[in-house]
Amino acid sequence: MDLENQRRVKDIAEANGPENVMVILGAAEGEAAGLAAETVTLGDPTYAGPLTGVSLKLEVYHICEQEIKDQIPEDVYDEQISMMEMVLDVDDIVSEMQAIRDQI
Amino acid sequence: MNSVILSSSYVLVHTPDMVIHNGSTQNTERVVNPDSEYLKALPQHIRSFEQAVAYAPNQVYIGNKTPNFLNSLAMPWYDKPIENADKFGRFGQIMPQDEFYLLIQACDVFDVVNLEKNFVAEILPKFKNNPLIKEDIALRVKEGKDIDFIENIVNNEHGEGLYHNNKLVGSVTRGHDVDVNLSAHVLHENLVSKASSVLSLLQLIKNANIDANDVEYVIDCSEEACGDVNQRGGGNFAKAAAEIAGLNNATGSDVRSFCAGPAHAIIMAASLVKAGTYKCVAVTAGGSTAKLGMNGKDHVKKGLPVLEDVLGGFAVLIGVNDGVHPEINLDIVGRHTVGTGSSPEAVITSLLSAPLERVGLKMTDVDKYSAEMQNPDVTKPAGAGDVPLSNFKMIAALSVKKGQIERKELPIFVEKHGMPGWAPTQGHIPSGVPYIGFAVNDILENKINRAMIIGKGSLFLGRMTNLFDGVSFIIQKNSGKKESEAISEDMVKEFIAKAMRNFAESLMGGGNYDK
Q: In the 8-state DSSP scheme, what is residue B133?
């Protein structure tokens, strides 16, 4: 996750309280999704950004995970996400996301 | 009439020491974590010139291998060197770092570049032997300075060092005491971009076999900005490079849109020629030092060589329709507008299916698509996946949604209309344009009829807009009619119109057509 986005996530979490913030990712790869999820929960694994050593433990999901998909009107999801869902390895993304959530 | 693509060039510069000293990832690491294990391990992961030349994606970039060759090579590619690989290719060359430092000096007209005199003496004969380096450029290289002079600039005068084999061999002096836009770091970055653009232009003139004076206009589409405190992006990399490349009849300007720049520039060049404003326009771009070793941390962590060790450059020559070369069809231009939206479907629709549908074509009517042609050998170990493959899958998925192919045909579409990526991750360099050289050949050899080049850019990185950007255009087989023939056809039409007018007038004149 780039340094500017880390700063913004940190600021939003501090302003609203971490328990009131959820992060929804759109990464196209399981590994990238997992890294971003790790950054906003356990801290920046690359030790480069503002979330280094900061464990925000935010709730985090990928947009293609069923829990999020269920919250979105079907026609909106079809228009905005369904094409990408056809392309992505959703199972890999879900398992990476779950692996990070299991560590919290 | 549509303008045509007369020629193209593709060059690489192997810059192992610049990876360490000038890449943004490494520079950031030196600031935030100067004692990091990564910086200590990095030198052991740097490739030699011979290794970079033998690297299959680099051989494809300069045209010695085709993209299809990579399909036959199991990934990863970095551990499968090409035997007897040549640094000279059909489209261009891979220049070594030592020669490139001399070219940088040849591109410096403000005496900010100084090279150590023994280094110059050693490399100059080799530089002069390079088939692209003519006497006018070789004469620009100065005799060189003592190492004490160079060390003083780097250590005491805020200069930027030029290193070769980890040894200081030159320096770039800052252009101003206070103005950060003229710092040695910025001047170095800009001179590298300019010099690799010059190399691309020299190669283009050679490939096209034309007189350098035939080029009337040059458009630079790199991602750097040159200027000073009062006009930070004042520009004109294009004219600066044209001067050194000897394009004496040309002026030019810069086009910027992050990675979408090249596609914008080619559409503009094709339009300028079609409109008759200029007869011959060169689009050019040099490479980016900042992106060297951008994913180096992941490569080192996984025990790979640092694969982002080359600067990329390209140039495309667009001219008046000669009845032979592939045309740029400006009736099929895709554009991502302010109102398009950011969902992948909206993006792909605006760039691909919408322009095709306007002229009654389906997505399956385009033989080859070329979008973001980043080398997956670089991006996959960094967790960014296979970027070209993702693009082709998205194009195929939209074809499914449009009902143009069946869902089960998705992998076949990807294989047939896509190709593996081979371009270095230099931002604008992989953005659609690497295929143009092959597209021209494939069309001339009747292997394909139509290719679409797609440029996409991440405008949001500049913090001025949250928008994304993209444009696309079609390269197609020439209809066989020359510009001059088109003029005679127009004349015929004019004759007919005149005859009709006379006929009508004669009717109104009272039926005197019987006379």
A: -
Whether B393 sits inside 8 A of A31 (CB atoms) is: no
> Number of folded domains in chain A?
1
* Range(s) of the domain holding residue B104: 4-319
Alpha helices in B278-427 (DSSP H): 296-301, 344-348, 354-358, 376-379, 387-401, 410-417
Distance (Å) from the alpha carbon of A8 to chain B's nearest alpha carbon: 13
Domains in chain B, number: 3
Q: What percent of chain A has pLDDT over 70?
A: 100
Preferred mutation among A47, A64, A86 to probe B, highest tally of B CBs within 10 A:
A86
Provide the pLDDT for residue B512.
45
**Would you call B302 an interface residue with chain A, using a CB distance cutoff of 8 Å?**
no
Between chains, do A86 and B400 touch, taking CB under 8 Å as contact? yes
Q: Are residues B15 and B78 in the same domain?
A: yes
Q: Is the minimum CB–CB distance between A48 and chain B shorter than 8 Å?
A: yes
Contacts of B407 in chain A (CB under 8 A): 86
pLDDT of residue B504: 78
Residues B461, B337 share a domain: yes
Q: How far apart are CA B405 and CA B408, in angstroms?
A: 8
Q: Which two tokens stand for residue B270?
A: 């094709």
Core vs surface per residue B261-270: b (16+ CB within 10 A) or e: bbbbbbbbbb
Beta-carbon separation of A48 and B410 below 8 A:
no
Confidence of residue B514 (pLDDT cuts 50, 70, 90): very low
Residue B439 sits in the same domain as residue B346:
yes
Q: Express each pLDDT in B286-340 by its tens digit.
A: 999 999 999 999 999 999 999 999 999 999 999 999 999 999 999 999 999 999 9
Does the beta-carbon distance from A83 to B33 stay under 8 Å? Answer: no
Q: Please report residues of A whose CB lies closer than 8 A to that of B29.
A: 48
Each residue of A37-68: pLDDT tens digit?
A: 999 999 999 888 999 999 999 999 999 999 99
B-chain CB neighbours of A81 within 8 Å are 343
Task: Give the sheet arrangement for strand B167-172, strand by strand.
Answer: B113-115, B167-172, B160-164
* B344 contacts in chain A (CB < 8 Å): 83-84
Q: Are residues B233 and B364 in the same domain?
A: no
- Angstroms from B177 CA to nearest CA on chain A: 30
Instruction: Assign 3-class secondary structure to B149-200.
Output: HHHHHHHHCCCEEEEECCEEEEEECCCCCCCHHHCHHHHHHHHHHHHHHHHH
The pLDDT of residue A1: 87
**B394 shares contact with chain A (CB less than 8 Å):** yes
pTM across the whole model: 0.90
Domain enclosing residue A31, as ranges = 3-103
Q: Are residues B272 and B136 in the same domain?
A: yes
Are B148 and B228 in a shared domain?
A: yes
